[in-house]
Amino acid sequence: APVAFEWLWKAKCIPRIKVFGWFLLSDRLNTRNMLKRRHYNIGDNLDCLLCGQPVEETVEHLFFHCDFSKACWDT
Length: 75
Ligand SMILES: [Zn+2]
What we know:
InterPro entries: RVT-Znf. This protein is 53% helix and 0% strand. The chain is an all-alpha fold and 75 residues long. The chain has helices at 3-10, 15-25, 32-37, 59-65, 67-74. The chain is built from 5 helices and no strands.
């Protein structure tokens, strides 16, 4: 298994956070990008709803590039 998963499961935090981390590392969070890949009927607009930028809502965007998320991390 990749090192990140070993680190995650050995981390001293509540299981709920570990499961969220597992979803994150496995690219299984329900972003608009993921919902579209699973053929959910969400229309053609995959833009991020948090920042309003015309950028597809992916895990990478939500955690590393989204202006709204950056503002949350900075507080
Ligand atoms: Zn965004």
